Amino acid sequence: MTRLPALPALRRRVDRWAGSPRALDAVAALFAFGLMLLDVPGLARADNSLTGITATLVLAGGAATLVLRRRLPWLPYAVALGLMGWLHELTMIQFALYSIGRYRGRRAAVLATLLYVAVAYGYFLTPGWPVEHGETVSDFLSLVVPIGVLAAGVGIAAYRQDLVRALEGQRREAAARQAVQEERISVGRDVHDLVGRELTVLAVRAEVLAVRARGEAHQKDFEELADTARRAHLMLNETIVRRADRDAATPGIEGLPGLAGESERMGSPVELTVAEEAKALSPLRQAAVHRVVRECLTNAAKHAPGLPVTVAVTVEGPDLRIEVRNPLPKSPPDPAPVSTGTGLFSMGERVTSMGGTLRARREDGAYAVTATLPAGLIP
User: Fold this and answer.
1) What number of H helices and E strands is found in the chain?
2) What is the rounded (10 degree) CA torsion for 229, 233, 236, 238?
3) Nearest C-alpha neighbor of 66 from the set 54, 74, 57
4) pLDDT per residue over 172-226, tens digit each?
5) pLDDT tens-digit series, residues 259-287
6) Residue 40's beta-bridge partner residues?
7) Residue 302: closest CA among 274, 275, 270, 329
8) How far apart are CA 287 and CA 140, in angstroms?
9) Is the dihedral of CA 177, 180, 186, 191 positive or negative?
10) Cis check: omega of the bond before 374, within 30 degrees of 0
């Protein structure tokens, strides 16, 4: 027995379909069919061998081709020209011209409009064209041309808007990728500065022990250990950071009060809570804490100026937890803040690179950012 999907799952499927291009095409086809239904009584009375039922079926079949208007916009266009000549139906051609302008651009729309006017003029010269569509060429043009030009023009405008939205989406994706790449470089520099220092200490310490063990059995082992540490440091230099200028390492926990002070000077008071256990974190994790808190305070100053911010850095078992929360403003700041929208991407990359997760959400009238990552503390 087939099991019906749960109501929430079915609702999600319906919502996804309702926002899909196929759903919009189906709505366009139904809308066109609904408008053409208004002409069915007249079509049934006309001398075209159609009854009310057959006219309805013909119009339904024509409108159904609009479902393919994205992939094959010339198909509903050809059907619309046929309906115009057979049933003198002008509704379908409006949707067809709009679809060509929307999904094929300006050149195709202009060509389709000119062809439509030419075909319609040929129909006009053919005996049997209904009087209500114009007794003279002037009357005919005043009816037919505006329909085609307006429909195609609206389609071209929508096509341009689609291009603008696509370019804007690509710009946002490129900015996000750049932010992630910059954050990876920043992580690499921190790794270089922090781990490289420890490798240097290890190499120097091994050399000292090798000198002290001169003539003893372990002298060679200490010398090999020193060589290994130096090779690892060289490899770190070559693979992670290749740059002439050396940036200072990102501050750690000790830099958080400075960030809070800067935020308060910008008008946003900060309540800072740092667990004592957090001070024992590795320098790399402390750099991650500093990076997340700095970005959150910057965002709070931009989007919720003057409102208090709470920052809590705690160690819960094996996890390090960073939570930054600020109330949502009653109205957007004026003027609107200048923001690239990539702060969350860079923070997420920093946290993810260390095996953690980052979550930003609105809840209880506040905006909260929570980052959780392994503390790496030895119990």
Assistant:
1) 12, 5
2) -130
3) 74
4) 776 766 666 666 666 666 665 566 666 666 767 777 777 777 777 777 777 777 7
5) 888 888 877 889 999 998 888 887 778 88
6) none
7) 329
8) 75
9) negative
10) no
